[in-house]
What we know:
The complex is a heterodimer.
Chain A: H1 7-11, H2 13-44, H3 51-76, H4 84-98, H5 104-127, H6 133-152, E1 157-158, H7 166-169, E2 171-172, E3 175-176, H8 177-195, H9 197-207, H10 209-213, H11 219-245, E4 247-248, H12 257-266, H13 277-297, H14 302-325
Antiparallel strand pairs in A: 1-4, 2-3
Helix pairs in contact in A: 2-13, 2-14, 3-8, 3-9, 3-11, 3-12, 3-13, 4-5, 4-6, 4-11, 5-6, 5-11, 8-9, 9-11, 12-13, 12-14
Chain B: E1 6-17, E2 20-31, E3 35-39, H1 46-53, E4 61-66, E5 69-71, H2 76-81, E6 84-87, H3 99-103, E7 110-111, E8 114-115, H4 117-131, H5 146-159, E9 164-168, H6 176-191, E10 195-199, H7 203-209, E11 212-217, E12 220-226, H8 232-239, E13 260-269, E14 273-281, E15 285-289, H9 296-304, E16 311-316, E17 319-320, H10 326-331, E18 334-337, H11 341-345, H12 352-357, E19 365-366, E20 369-370, H13 372-385, H14 403-415, E21 421-425, H15 433-448, E22 452-456, H16 460-466, E23 469-474, E24 477-483, H17 489-497
Amino acid sequence: MSAPATPASRFGIARRGVGIGLTSLRDYGIVASFVLIFVFLTFKSNVFLTKINLFNVLDQNSEWGIMACGGTLVLIAGGFDLSVGAIFALSGVVAAQAAAHMNPTYAILLGALVGLGVGIVNGIVTTVGRINALVGTLASSIVIQGIALVLTNGQLVNVTKSGFTSLGQGTIFTLHYSVIVWATFALICGFLLWRTRYGRYIYASGGNAEAARLSGVRVNLIRASTYAISGLSAGIAGVIVASRVATGEADTGTFPLVVIAGIVIGGTSILGGQGAIWRSVLGILLLALIGNGFNLLGVNPIYQQILQGSIILTAVGIDAWARKTNT
Amino acid sequence: MTSTDTHVELLGIGKRFSGVQALQDISLAIERGGVHALVGENGAGKSTLGRIIAGAHVPDAGTMKVNGDVVRYNSPHDALADGLTMIAQELTLVPLRSVIENVFLGSETSRFGLVVKDPMRERYDELCAQAGFDLPGDDPVGSLRIADQQKVEILRALARDSKLIVMDEPTAALTSDESSRLLDIVRGLRDAGTTIVYVSHFLPEVLSIADTVTVLRDGRLIHTRPAESETPASIVTAMLGRPMELSFPEKIYPPDDAPVVLSVRGLARPPVFEDITFDVRAGEIVGLAGLIGSGRTEVARAIFGADRFDRGEIAVGGAPLKTRSPKGAIRAGIAMLPESRKDQGLHMRRPIVENVSLAHLGAVSSAGVLMPREERGKVQEIVERVDVRGASRLSALVSTLSGGNQQKVLFAKWLFRSPRVLLADEPTRGVDVGAKRAIYALIQGLAAEGMAVVLISSELEEVLGLAHRILVIRAGHLVAEFDGRSATEDDVLHAAFATGGIAA
Lengths: 327, 504
């Protein structure tokens, strides 16, 4: 029969005004927060605005940043990937172990490809397998972590070949290779979303899967492919860290809190269909600045967790309210 | 009627939905302990009225009295306090929980916040006895057949001590056998003193059960009469018979030798639809008329590859369709405007330009990379052609447009590359009169250019005003065909309702 009335319509202009305010807060809040904190730290600390400090911050967060780029694609396509932490650990372990038997460059490639492979499996499980993304990738992360433990027997895998560490430790004009990899990966993912047919299909699949399907988009294929990219990103992140510390370690696969936090703080919606790579990059950098600020200003790091959690709640809350009032 | 005391009284009730007047000046008295039927065409406002009585919609105008007192319900919960409940068209059960839990959902007997089972079971047995049901109380509701799920809804209404139950198309999903049993239950409830408001468009059923019949048309009350003074024919006459408010463009019939573009042979997915065979020629608009739930939408979706079908062939321009997916259908030149533009057609939170080009991105990209200038140019051209108003910027979100303009965006999306076949399901739903006229002209213009059009609409006058040929579908079967030159609303409605003696 007739269309149901939205509750908001009864409140008319007042509610709409709130909706627009929240929408712009969601869209540009991340930029404002980032600038604020950056300026704040510049004035508060003499060390902050130095090349060494900033380059270090970038290097230390490159693994999170790379995974956040992959995760952003998954989220926009309407999925969710909790397994990147475990893939990260497995790839590092595989690369470290393989380095004993082959050219370290190939070992690193192999590690990254393992990430891609696991991502493909995740993609199939959560689309064709119809398994809920949260549960599916949580379960697969447990399996992956288990495989990494089996491979290493729970021990650290030390790599002595010198070539193995060049990816993680090498620099060009004091800028770490890892940062260049992050920047490149972010640019590629950003371009995919911004300017390609594939990117449009990602937005369409996450925003309204049925409408996308009826437009001829193969929604399952698109979603699965984002998991593959996310797996690859975790693989790359894993080998970077393994290379940086010349060690593969099965226990590094923590819950990918920072990755998801960075994406969400950036303003990419957990409900799919909206978001951007630059947002997630800024989100990760915002968290990084907060961590850096706590260090430089000598604040007890325990408070950092509380602050980070509160920021995530605020970001998700703003998204939810912006959606509700602006339907 | 056994009683003449008024249970619910409506005075001048009106309701608008985003600019569309769904109900206007409805005044009505519902007798206690009777069955009061609300009938009308799809979109006449009967469900809306039922929902207002049950508190699910808040009226914009008028007053409602229950037991003589003025009431104002803001939610079904408020109505429940006065003993008014509703059994909606879509059942509202929790499929994985047991029958008993569903029956007492929200009215559990509890002690210190803990649910106490035994008194609930006793009460459940009482209720079953009262209604004459025999339902396994511990089975999950999801394992029951639809007819039994409906009984659970009825038990729930009784458990809440309902004095009045609004039933919205309760038999729509039932077999005829199940329907007649449901009608017995309704009679039983009435005899036990419950007032029933029965919303339906199955006229024989309405006449067999109702004490009073109210006919609605276009959101207005036509009349309220005792059921014994009505016949199916008299109700149908009351439901139509309005002067044509909308002017339709002059029909341009395709030449007799126009080639067949869409050919459907023996399409079947029992029990939803079966043995669907028809052709549409170039330039021809074929109306697919039938009630909601008759299978008309399902047929269109099957042709488009959106849903599976079990048997049958579809050919476009003589070439059989091999890939049964929307992608395959689009490639073959079929386009479908889906029934619900919001849920199935558009990405409301994406810009106009992205919505229009989505299905044909290949045309504006090279090696997978989009060519924004080409894309915007092409979209601009089509958006102008279908005359989307309020699209000052192509980057504006679709959600900022009015319903009529959203629908035009949907047209633009499918005209991005001229399809050979256009399946238009409810192309003017929720659209104002001006936009309707524009959409009619658009459909007709497309046909005149040689497109084969299948038009589905709940608004019969729309089908009559546009279609060159009208196929009537009832219970999944094509039951009648009319020439657009001579068909009348009467013919089509009688075929759709099966009141005119046309063999099923």
